[in-house]
Design brief:
The complex is a heterotrimer. Chain B is α/β, with parallel strands linked by helices. Chain B is about 35% helix and about 10% strand. In chain C, the strands form four sheets. Chain C has a five-stranded mixed sheet with strand order 1-2-5-4-3. Chain C has a two-stranded parallel ribbon with strand order 6-7. In chain C, strands 8-9 form a two-stranded antiparallel ribbon. The chains are: A mainly alpha, B alpha/beta, C alpha+beta. At the A-C interface, helix 2, helix 9, helix 14, strand 6 and strand 7 of A face strand 3 and helix 3 of C.
């Protein structure tokens, strides 16, 4: 390479001020219009623009009421709740195992990660999280990381599509289709998997699956390189995302942001490293952290995380106890008949297993009274489950701490001062999912 | 005796000239270019996007233009859970679509409320708009959606357009 | 345990209202007897003990007990990596306590959600209105005496609701049933 290309980036607000000065010199106010908010002088009327709830940014049903002064946003009020389905009240009316399909549909881009987080939360309540067999833990890590790759691929594809780069969307969707085929072989459904159970997994790896996953890891890295060539040094993409949507470190922590949004702002907090769960403590991976906190940093953090996920998947496949086909018959469930459904042939022939099966299916696992909070590192941030149990098979109160809910609360703070078209870039880079936000 | 809406065209006999009923011709044009208005609300929207992506290409069936403008679309695909808060917005968007228009209710939540029997979920989008095709599944595979589109196309072919 | 030490420091500062710390499954919980001082306690926790992130605020409806509302605050410090849980109870007649948005701005939406779902008000909140349901919805859905199926309402041009068909259900076990007989699944009616 002869010389590296320098990319100039322009602060959008100063660009607008320069444009206003050149076009209408007599109306230029004393203070720059980029400060946002009312500085006492009205430069004409402000327009109220309603963005959503049905809008093409394919991020779900979010409604933002924008107050615009020309092209600059002066006030933004998000209106959420258009996908509020009543999950928490439903949880009070079913057993822990019956609630697993509802967890799939929270962050519906990464259902396996939600399943794992919920199963770990209930297992923490029961006190059996240290008894999970190692094979089960490794498979759960593989599931989480596959979900992370899948969610980030779609997040980046949708983000690029909103900016205008339609090709990237189709590329990432091709890779996601490969993930769907793998997940379908493993769990039976393309997404909305309901794969984990309290105390283990629903089924073991099918034969030949691990090899297919290794092959996929090689292919997806080629795809990462392709997407990077299309986006990372692309003048238009960088112009639209550099210095747009800057979230400072203090703001990010104050508003409760987690995940790539927090790490893009320079805070090195990843639940997998801070409070390792499953076997993350034994695996070797890095956590990309940004510096400026703009949309470009969040994009780079997500690209880096995908690469680290592939690295983690490869390590897990190499270290999987029992190997690819589990010839040694390593267990994948906690060996406790009161938690995990016993084998069907025993149920049909033996009294004790029959009773366990009956109790587990009708009454659910018998959780002790108490309360726990468990947060897992989901692709969107920290998905937390607060379970308050008074004993028995149903929770008394289940609260889902959704990362997208907290990530979206920063919008009224970040959007003002930016231009209308930057709003789309900021929304895409925050990468939220309404199913999770509204529950 | 063939109905008024069958195409009845045999290229060996008629060559390059097609002689048919107006109903059949109009319906054929309509069904082969159904522009969807994707009302993508929840998880089914992801399968809708997958149906539009390269592997299950929906543009083979004429539905490539998935623009979010109701004024320029023919069929509204309600993909996802319709909550009571969202219901009137869906109704308003349906009203903005010009005739002729059709609706595909994709997934269990749009058809009947799905597994969300709660205080906030509309139990089926057919309570507020008339639905032509229901697709079962949670979420339905993209192939199921394409099957529903083909069923809708067959339904459109049989519609009497000019006859009373 | 670092978390237990920090909790002890907090408890020592406010020993007249804080009791605990209790430990369960490795987590530390402090109980605040006077909900009016929640903002003060949180301010100290943030400024002096560097619990700089508020992870979550949860509300629990103890139907049939007095005080009826329990509020649970999950705190976390990104510097020291310790969690802390603060619990406080509010009676039904009062149904109000001070806001903590002055301490963490992220509490804004959490408190709006609690107001929307449970009906607990927060004094001093900048914009306390419903967030998940629409303005004008007359009920508080997460209360135990509100049925899962919902109640019919109608707000013209905004939204309407109907009661979802439950087919005789929901059939559910009783949380906290004393023995397995009490925990057999039965039809659950709202507690009223």
């Amino acid at each position: 390479m002869a010389t590296a290309q320098t990319i100039e980036f322009h602060d959008p607000a100063s660009r607008v001020a320069a444009g206003a000065k050149s076009l209408m010199p007599e109306i230029v106010p004393a203070s720059a219009p980029s400060t946002g908010g009312d500085d006492g002088e009205l430069h004409g009327e402000k327009m109220i623009l309603n963005m959503g709830p049905s809008h093409p940014s394919t991020h779900g049903v979010l409604r933002i009421i924008l107050e615009l002064d020309g092209e600059i946003i002066t006030k933004a009020t998000p209106d959420v709740g258009y996908l509020h389905r009543g999950d928490e009240k439903i949880a009070e009316n079913m057993t822990y195992t019956q609630f697993i399909p509802y967890t799939d549909r929270l962050d519906y881009l990464a259902p396996l990660a939600n399943n794992v987080a919920y199963a770990l939360a209930v297992e923490k309540l029961m006190g059996i999280d240290q008894q999970l067999p190692p094979r089960c833990q490794y498979i759960r890590v593989i599931c989480c990381e596959m979900a992370r790759v899948s969610a980030h691929l779609l997040g980046l594809g949708a983000f690029a599509m909103d900016i205008g780069a339609l090709t990237v969307f189709l590329h990432t969707f091709t890779e996601r289709e490969k993930i769907y085929s793998l997940i379908e072989r493993l769990t039976g459904a393309r997404f909305t998997t309901s794969y984990t159970r309290i105390g283990g997994l629903s089924r073991d790896l099918p034969p030949g699956w691990a090899d297919a996953l290794r092959k996929f890891c090689d292919e997806v890295e080629v795809n990462f390189a392709e997407s990077e060539t299309l986006l990372t040094r692309n003048r238009i993409f960088v112009d639209r995302t550099r210095n747009v949507g800057i979230i400072s470190r203090a703001d990010a922590i104050d508003y409760g942001l987690t995940g790539p949004n927090l790490r893009g702002s320079g805070v090195d907090y990843d639940v997998r490293k801070a409070h390792p769960y499953l076997v993350y403590g034994e695996l070797d991976f890095e956590v990309p952290v940004g510096s400026v906190g703009d949309s470009y940093d969040r994009y780079l953090v997500r690209m880096g995380e995908m690469r680290q996920s592939v690295r983690l998947i490869r390590q897990c496949l190499d270290q999987l106890p029992g190997g690819d086909d589990n010839d040694a018959m390593e267990p994948i469930n906690v060996p406790d008949g009161k938690v995990v459904l016993p084998a069907k042939d025993k149920v049909m022939t033996s009294m004790e297993e029959l009773i366990h099966q009956f109790m587990l299916v009708t009454q659910g696992v018998n959780a002790p009274p108490g309360e726990i909070y468990f947060g897992a590192e989901n692709p969107k941030g920290e998905l937390g489950f607060y379970i308050n149990s008074r004993g028995g098979g149903t929770p008394y109160r289940l609260k889902i701490r959704a990362p997208s809910f907290c990530n979206l609360s920063i919008l009224p703070h970040v959007l003002p001062g930016h231009m209308m078209s930057d709003a789309v870039s900021i929304l895409g880079s925050i990468d939220f999912v309404m199913g999770e936000c509204d529950r | 005796m063939p109905t008024t809406t069958e195409l009845g065209y045999n290229s060996k006999i008629e060559g390059d000239v097609v002689v048919t009923r107006v109903d059949a011709a109009i319906n054929w044009c309509r069904k082969q270019s159904l522009w969807p208005m994707p009302m993508g609300l929840a998880c089914c929207a992801i399968e809708l996007m997958a149906a539009g992506a390269s592997k299950f290409d929906i543009s083979r069936f004429g539905s490539e233009v998935m623009r979010f403008s109701p004024r320029q679309s023919d069929v509204m695909i309600v993909a996802g859970t319709v909550t009571y808060k969202m219901a009137l917005a869906v109704r308003r968007i349906y009203d903005q679509m010009p005739e002729p228009k059709w609706v595909i209710a994709m997934g269990a939540c749009a058809s009947t409320g799905g597994m969300y029997r709660s205080y906030a979920v509309l139990q089926g989008v057919d309570q507020i708009i008339p639905v032509d095709v229901y697709v079962a599944g949670c979420p339905p595979r993209p192939e199921a959606l394409l099957d529903a589109l083909i069923k809708l196309q067959n339904k459109i072919q049989k519609e009497p357009v000019l006859a009373a | 345990m670092a978390a237990a030490e920090l909790a002890n420091q907090l408890q020592a500062k406010f020993s007249d209202v804080l009791s605990g710390p209790a430990e369960f499954r490795g987590e530390v919980t402090l109980k605040l007897a006077d909900p009016e001082r929640i903002a003060e306690v949180c301010e100290f926790a943030k400024k002096s003990l560097s619990y700089d992130m508020l992870l979550d605020i949860t509300s629990i409806d103890n139907y049939g007990e007095d005080p009826r509302w329990t509020l649970v605050y999950e705190l976390y410090g990104t510097g020291h990596g310790c969690h802390l849980r603060l619990k406080t109870e509010v009676s039904e007649e009062k149904s109000e306590l001070p806001t903590v948005t002055g301490v963490w701005r992220g509490a804004d939406w959490h408190e709006r959600e609690i107001y929307d779902m449970m009906g607990v008000r927060f004094r001093g909140h900048p914009d306390l209105r419903r967030i998940l349901m629409w303005d004008g919805y007359p009920y508080f859905p997460l209360r135990k005496d509100f049925p899962l199926a919902g109640k019919p309402t109608d707000l013209p041009d905004v939204a309407f609701t109907k009661s979802a068909p439950q087919e005789g259900g929901p059939f559910v076990t009783v949380a906290g049933g004393k023995d397995s007989m009490a925990r057999e699944p039965r039809v659950r009616v709202p507690e009223n």
